[in-house]
């Protein structure tokens, strides 16, 4: 039995079908492959989950988050696995799940990108977009996403270490599906984006994957990086070089705002 079947066993689906959660149909469509997109997304999810299992990162607390009947909580748990998978399998970096927030403390982050024995990037992942757009006007929806993202960054900032590691906050795929075109969303000034006195935040990234109508469907990962110009510790050059490597066929789009 693989890790997916262990977590999503018959008991899980029995409880899901008998539950009163308003997200029941979303979960059933996702797990049962109700359409081509959901089948492809499920295939990707299984890859993300398998990598976590290989790194001994599917312990009871994570399994509990993944078995939730709340779609928003599931999306957040999945985004953490997706970020780890992207940096490991697509960019080739070693990664660590749940790194210590302080080198001598007990708090934990989401993932850490291991660049070398003495260089690492501490990563927090968040999925702040928690509603479907209910307006037609693009500018209103963009303003909503921008304000929610900035608020989310404010909450995540306090969880970053200040111990010599570079740091990054990843904005993952939210409830509204893919993010709006990132250049539109990030119309805030760089000062508004990062706020004041946040020099221990090295960069913010937007990570998502999309399905492309080829035969068979092709999955491509999208990453946009916004380095913090006032960061005390910059992202390692090798991380930036690998992200923008033209030979990396998994990257569909990349923007840098310096």
- Helix and strand pattern: HHHHHHEEEHEHHEEH
Main β-sheet description: 6 strands, mixed
What proportion of the residues form beta strands (DSSP E)?
15-25%
Q: Measured on Cα atoms, how large is the radius of gyration?
A: 18 Å
Report helical residue fraction: 40-55%
The overall pLDDT, averaged over residues, is 78
Task: Briefly note the structural class of the backbone.
Answer: alpha/beta
Q: Summed up, what is this model?
A:
41% of the residues lie in helices and 17% in strands.
Top keywords for this entry?
single chain; 258 residues; alpha/beta; 6-stranded mixed sheet; 10 helices; 6 strands; 17% strand; globular
Describe the structure.
With 258 residues, the protein is α/β, with parallel strands linked by helices. The protein has one domain (3-243). The chain has ten helices and six strands, in the order H-H-H-H-H-H-E-E-E-H-E-H-H-E-E-H. It has helices at residues 3-7, 10-18, 24-32, 36-54, 60-66, 71-90, 138-157, 182-185, 190-194, 237-243, and strands spanning 94-97, 111-116, 119-126, 166-171, 203-212, 218-227. Strands 1-2-3-4-5-6 form a six-stranded mixed beta sheet, with helices on both faces. A hairpin with a 5-residue loop joins strand 5 (203-212) and strand 6 (218-227). Helix 3 (24-32) crosses helix 4 (36-54). The protein starts with a helix and ends in a 15-residue tail after the last helix.
């Amino acid at each position: 039995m693989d890790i997916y079947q262990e977590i999503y066993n018959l008991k899980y689906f029995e409880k899901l079908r008998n539950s009163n959660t308003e997200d029941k149909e979303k979960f059933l469509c996702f797990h049962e492959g109700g359409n081509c997109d959901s089948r492809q997304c499920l295939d990707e999810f299984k890859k993300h989950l398998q990598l976590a299992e290989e790194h001994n990162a599917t312990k009871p607390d994570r399994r509990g988050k993944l078995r939730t009947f709340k779609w928003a909580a599931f999306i957040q748990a999945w985004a953490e696995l997706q970020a780890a998978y992207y940096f490991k399998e697509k960019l080739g970096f070693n990664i660590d799940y749940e790194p210590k927030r302080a080198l001598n403390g007990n708090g934990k982050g989401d993932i850490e990108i291991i660049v070398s024995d003495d260089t690492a990037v501490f990563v927090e992942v968040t999925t702040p977009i928690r509603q479907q757009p209910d307006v037609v006007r693009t500018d209103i929806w963009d303003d909503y996403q921008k304000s929610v993202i900035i608020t989310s960054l404010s909450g995540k900032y306090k969880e970053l270490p200040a111990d010599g590691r570079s740091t990054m906050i990843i904005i993952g795929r939210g409830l509204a599906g893919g993010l709006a075109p990132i250049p539109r969303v990030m119309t805030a000034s760089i000062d508004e984006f990062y706020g004041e006195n946040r020099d221990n935040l090295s960069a913010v990234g937007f990570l998502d994957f999309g399905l492309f109508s080829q035969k068979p469907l092709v999955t491509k990962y999208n990453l946009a990086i916004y380095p913090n110009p006032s960061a005390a510790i910059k992202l390692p050059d090798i991380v930036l070089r690998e992200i923008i490597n033209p030979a990396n066929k998994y990257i569909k789009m990349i923007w840098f705002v310096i």
